[in-house]
Amino acid sequence: MKKVLILGGAGFIGYNILRYLAERRDYELTAADDFSSGARDGDLEVLCAKYKIRLITADFSKPDAYRQLDPRYDEVYVLASVVGVNRCIEEPEEVIRVNTAIIHYTTEWLRTAKPSRVLFASSSENYAATTETFNYPVPTAENVPLCIADTRHPRFTYAATKILGEAAFFAYGQRLGIHTTVVRYQNIYGPRMGFKHAIPHIIERIRKGENPVKIYGADQTRSFCFCTDGAEGTVLALESDGSDQQVYHIGNSDEITIETLTRTIGAAMGYAGSYENAQTYPGSVSRRCPGIAKARRDFGYDPRVSLEEGIGKTVAWYRAFFDAGSPITTGGFKPPEALQYRKDL
Ligand SMILES: NC(=O)c1ccc[n+]([C@@H]2O[C@H](COP(=O)([O-])OP(=O)(O)OC[C@H]3O[C@@H](n4cnc5c(N)ncnc54)[C@H](O)[C@@H]3O)[C@@H](O)[C@H]2O)c1
Fold this sequence. Notes:
By secondary structure, the chain is of the alpha/beta class. The chain is 40% helix and 16% strand.
């Protein structure tokens, strides 16, 4: 039976990949995570018990953690990472420390573990500045150059580590003869996505009675991909025979404005009040949308869940979560005006 490890398996996307594999494949699954983020709602524990998934709790930014892993896995998904704009802006040194340590120790561990395949989770942040600065087309293909607009700005620490990760995994994969694939996600969303992203934040604000509801960066465009589509795309990318040394954009190429997103959430919640435009994050790009033609061509990736359906499911989950009196466990979301950082950069 194939042995599969998901590093960062307790996280939002990790949980969805675990669930996808557990329900559709006959694999021996292990999830490893330090539980520094992600909703502690019991769903993961239920899934693990039902499908006999092994759960390892350890901090993989420390070398000792790797001793808890089995000597051999067939496939490894590397999702563990510090994520979120707020963490970058407020704790950039921690983003650098944790993300580079995980990249370093995991790639070194590959020398002995030698799985057949490995996948590294990267981000559309890597090309966000490219499209803005050099006018590359949006939706954006995988082969555009990656770009950091300003190394002094803490916002870009995350992208800097993700660019390092892509290069590191490809280099070790080539050297060690391991089938290596990178996926760059953009705005995967859905139930259990935590509290640090725009979608749960909008839900939370409407629930708390904000009126008018602020729309941060109303005209900016993004695209949003429901988590089950994102999980399927990730598994197909790793399992595709042609994906060695390849990058794939995993997201949805339907580009919408933040205003449309906010109003869609408002409609799903029955919100009848008004909206007002507000300033968005420093360094936030005006357009971003992944081109997914390569993933479609190579392994038939085809996101199916519409925005209305996905937002409906997400709103229902957050409503039930808050109605049950469950606490926000991961520090919550801060609007741009509440962030502490050097504004002269
Ligand atoms: N969600 C998105 O839209 C999106 C977009 C771009 C990239 N990504 C990337 O996809 C991956 C998964 O993202 P997610 O949205 O599920 O985020 P997430 O925060 O829910 O998942 C990351 C997981 O890594 C774990 N982790 C962090 N530090 C760790 C450590 N030192 N040791 C062990 N585990 C640790 C966290 O506890 C968490 O469970 C990340 O690498 C992220 O950078 C996600």
